[in-house]
């Protein structure tokens, strides 16, 4: 007898529909799995057989062949245990009506169903392929409950899954604690706590408004990290589709828990400067998401940029431009989304004292040259905004300065939302399009300048000796600055401010 049970497989961070075909025939007892299954799936026999016995069902002493359809794509994951077991029991107990149901779950030897990685993207795939019911481990039910228009059936053991399949267990829609509700953000770290640095805060607001990468260069202790950590608070909250996307990534990476079953805030990732290429980009024998993918729809903060391995920075260039990481394994290519905003911070030199009037720089000329080369290399050329961060004076720290209070996160968020509304109207036919990721052709179409702005940007191109890429980024930043003022045309003042964000301090750290 042959049975068919629906399930899904992971391809990167996306699910792919899979059908588990189980054929049981007379012959010498054997158990074979075909269809490009990995070692975890091939070991399923050692888990499925005792789980079936210990759940009170019989295991056939016949020739069993399990085929994973489509057979031409590689499949991995222990979540195939449950559909394989269901196919075998179905062949012995009777043909149940499960055409509209997808089964996901890893089995323990006693028949209990363990939580799995990637439950949400697997469930999304099931919904997209017409499944109305999804049987998942009880520990994953909260995570999957964020899905709309689908019935989630949590099961704790194999017997409950069988009872549901044969109609003895009524499947109820698992709504979860907060899945359908918007989660109100509580912002504890506010830009109003940052003393001074108003020009840098303005640049950070522009970066958030247009989804531009930004590099802050300044000595130790001037507030670069403090400001970077407050960036998520001025970004718009994730919408429903973005929450599904980001939560799916964290599910595949195994970074969800019962306390945090979904991701409701924009990610903020801060990899250490000693991180490897695989740690940043992703990889491994079974490719897993790296920091760049974990920062998708959020921020990746590259602190101490000058200390990162140049090979790691070079490997980030293409993913940042394309918004996707591509990893080749044998004959297949795995892709991970990587639309993250880069916020980088660096000292002006290796010791950090190059611009400090009270301390002496101890770097040699050779060290300075190597450090400048890294900061002005191909990776930095792909960062739209470069800004110098000056030390804060004692008067500002102590409150003796009578200057008016600086911008708060709420005020900066208003600027960001205003600019993003302008962009959503302008790029209505381009989903998730921002000024920062406009192509050359799109920039030429949408970045309309008045005569003064065009003349000033032309002068900046020649005087700063900009590359063609840097010129394009200057124009796109000017477009964002105009959007922050709700101006359809780029004015001369917008171009002048954008040009300021392509230089830092003198010739020592001339970033192009």
From TrEMBL:
Transmembrane segments: none annotated. Gene3D superfamilies: 3.30.230.10, P-loop containing nucleotide triphosphate hydrolases (3.40.50.300). One of its GO terms (molecular function) is ATP binding. Residues 210-393 form the AAA+ ATPase domain. It comes from the Bacteria. Belongs to the Mg-chelatase subunits D/I family. ComM subfamily. This is YifB family Mg chelatase-like AAA ATPase. The lineage of its organism: Bacteria, Bacillati, Bacillota, Clostridia, Eubacteriales.
């Amino acid at each position: 007898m042959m049975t068919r049970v629906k399930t899904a497989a992971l391809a990167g961070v996306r699910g792919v529909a899979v059908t588990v075909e189980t054929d049981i025939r007379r012959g010498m007892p054997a158990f074979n799995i075909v269809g490009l299954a990995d070692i975890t799936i091939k070991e399923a026999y050692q888990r499925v057989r005792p789980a079936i016995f210990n759940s009170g069902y019989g295991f056939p002493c016949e020739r069993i062949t399990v085929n994973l359809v489509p057979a031409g794509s590689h499949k991995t994951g222990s979540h195939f245990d449950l559909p394989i077991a269901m196919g075998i029991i179905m062949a012995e107990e009777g043909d149940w009506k499960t055409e509209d149901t997808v089964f996901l779950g890893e089995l323990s030897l006693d028949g209990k169903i363990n939580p799995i990685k990637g439950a949400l993207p697997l469930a999304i795939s099931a919904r997209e392929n017409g499944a109305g019911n999804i049987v998942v481990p009880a520990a994953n039910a909260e995570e999957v409950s964020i899905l709309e228009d689908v019935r989630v059936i949590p099961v704790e053991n194999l017997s409950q899954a069988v009872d549901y399949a044969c109609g003895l267990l009524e499947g109820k829609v698992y709504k979860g604690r907060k899945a359908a509700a918007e989660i109100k953000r509580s912002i504890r770290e506010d830009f109003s706590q940052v003393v001074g640095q108003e020009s840098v805060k303005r640049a950070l607001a522009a970066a958030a408004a247009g989804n531009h990468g930004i590099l802050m260069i300044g000595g130790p202790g001037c507030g670069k990290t403090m400001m970077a950590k407050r960036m998520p608070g001025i970004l718009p909250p994730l919408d429903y589709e973005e929450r599904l996307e980001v939560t799916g990534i964290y599910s595949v990476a195994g970074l969800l828990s019962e306390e945090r079953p979904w991701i409701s805030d924009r990610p903020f990732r801060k990899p250490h400067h000693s991180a490897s290429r695989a740690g940043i980009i992703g990889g491994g024998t079974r490719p897993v998401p790296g920091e760049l993918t974990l920062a998708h729809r959020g921020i990746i903060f590259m602190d101490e940029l000058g200390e990162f391995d140049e090979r790691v920075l070079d490997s980030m260039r293409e993913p940042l431009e394309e918004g996707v990481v591509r990893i080749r394994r044998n004959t297949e290519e795995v892709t991970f989304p990587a639309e993250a905003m880069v916020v980088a911070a660096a000292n002006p030199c290796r010791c950090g004292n190059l611009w400090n009037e009270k301390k002496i720089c101890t770097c040699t000329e050779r060290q300075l040259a190597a450090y400048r080369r890294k900061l002005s290399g191909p990776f930095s050329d792909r960062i739209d905004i470069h800004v110098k961060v000056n030390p804060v004076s004692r008067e500002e720290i102590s409150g003796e300065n009578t200057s008016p209070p600086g911008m708060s996160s709420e005020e900066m968020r208003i600027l960001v939302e205003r600019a993003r509304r302008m962009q959503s109207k302008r790029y209505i036919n381009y989903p998730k399009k921002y000024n920062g990721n406009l192509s050359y052709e799109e920039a030429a179409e949408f970045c309309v300048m008045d005569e003064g702005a065009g003349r000033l940007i032309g002068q900046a191109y020649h005087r700063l000796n900009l590359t063609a890429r840097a010129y394009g980024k200057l124009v796109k930043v000017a477009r964002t600055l105009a959007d922050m003022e709700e101006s359809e045309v780029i004015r001369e003042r917008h171009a002048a401010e954008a040009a300021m964000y392509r230089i830092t301090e003198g010739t020592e750290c001339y970033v192009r």
